[in-house]
Amino acid sequence: MNIGKLFIAVGIVFLIIGLIWTFIGKLPGDITFKKGNVSIHFPIMTSIVVSIILSLVFFIIGKFR
User: Fold this and answer.
1) Residues 41 and 30: beta-carbon distance below 8 Å
2) In terms of pTM, does the model score above 0.85?
3) What do you get for the CA distance between the two ends of the chain, in Å?
4) Which among 28, 54, 58 is positioned nearest to 43, based on CA atoms?
5) Residue 57: which residues within 8 A CB-CB, separation 6 or more?
6) What is the pLDDT of residues 35-62, one digit of tens each?
7) Where are the domains of the chain?
8) Which of 4, 9, 45, 61 could bridge across to 27 with cysteines, CB 3.0–4.6 Å?
9) According to DSSP H, which parts of the chain are helical?
């Protein structure tokens, strides 16, 4: 695989992750702490959903190889 195809593939993966993150940005399982001017967000449920989706995508890609 040459470097150009690798960059395109990485760019597409980042684009997909960005789109998914936009649509499911704050799910009920995410934890947010707010204290004064400081807020900390732990996207636990969002990370689990993204992990499941990426696992399915890579599983499907692996079936076609």
Assistant:
1) yes
2) no
3) 14
4) 28
5) 16
6) 999 988 888 887 888 789 889 988 988 8
7) 3-64
8) 45
9) 3-23, 44-64
